[in-house]
Amino acid sequence: MMNRKEFYEYVKDNVKAYLPKSYEEGEIKLQEVEKNNGLKLTGITIPNGDQRIVPTIYLDSLYQEYINGKDVDSCVGDVADMRIEAQGKAEFLDMGVPDIFDYEKMKDKLQMRICDKEWNTDRLEDKAFTEHGDFAAYYAVNLEENREGISSIPVTVSLMNEWGVSVEQIQADAMMADRNRGVVLMNMNEIIKSMIFGEEPENLLNEKLDIETMREPMFCLTNAQKMNGASLLLQEDIRKQIGECLGSDYFVLPSSIHEVLILPDNGLFEVPELNAMVKEVNETQVERQEQLSDKVQFCDGKTVVMENAERREARLEKEKAAEKAEVKGGIHGRLEKAKAEIKAKEVNKAPKDKAKNLAEVL
């Protein structure tokens, strides 16, 4: 049985035998691609003629199938099938490449993507990005969006320089484009029902909810396509809408890059428990490249300031302790000052009396 590297090389050396003649002259390359959260995948690119946009076929899952007993040549055939299937989309995208350097034509196609800043330092190195507390926002141009998925290219620093715009301008235009894609706040219970009965949950973003009458209130914030929708959290006016909708402060659970969960702060939740829950779900339910973070956030419903929930609690405890010390110190200080003043009067009084007595004697 071949090891991983040998398998990849075998695919590279033999895949042309399964492809049409138009692929014969292209230089096939293997490349390591860094995905979200440090995940690295191995892809293969197979050019077709002078095509400028060449799709990447990832080989990692195929290698796992090979390990599980699938014939290696069947795996190679699958790679060829995937490449042929991707050709139509690649040709469509290739037609739009000349416009990629025209910012005015691209700005409505921008999308903000969000990731954990600490988990993605290497991936962000060549990207145009902005920092938002525990998160970093980077940007992509969605060349095609449909039910099957999104075909996009990242906004690198070099592309931003070609456009001649600032990262702040890109952020503003990406936020506008994201709002135009639709913002959705859904009740999690209704989402579960929709999976069973097929009815689309109601968008609650502009509603005024009576949280106290709701059993286990939990909500999901995403976009209409339910793809890369977690970044909507970074828009201040959307956070404000959520606060007005709930009528309270709220916790934000970073569920995945596609959505976040919203929990009203009704006094029932402890931050350590929420953090533990997010970590467990990440480890057991969410694919690594789709994990957003394990850091629960707290959002003030009125000021819409969002901060790390754990650090917020530590800060409040510190401020509370300082306030107690100040009150205690203030009372103690006033007592000591009063004592000192009384003592000073007595000291000042004694010499005067003695001086008076001496004068009388003389």
UniProtKB/TrEMBL annotation:
Residues 299-326 form a coiled coil. The keyword Coiled coil applies. It comes from the Bacteria. It holds the Pfam family DUF5688. Keywords: Coiled coil. This is DUF5688 family protein. It comes from Fusicatenibacter faecihominis.
